[in-house]
Amino acid sequence: MRRFRVRSRISVSRNMMTYLFGLSVLIPAMTFSAQPAKKAVSWDDWQFLLGEWIGERGGQPGQGIGTFAFSLELQNTILVRKNHAEYPATKDRPAFSHDDLMVVHQEAGKPTQAIYFDNEGHVINYTVGFSEDKNGVTFLSELMPSAPRFKLTYTKGEKDTVLIKFEIASPGKPEEFSPYLEAKAKRK
Question: What element of type H or E holds 3?
Answer without folding.
Answer: helix 2-33
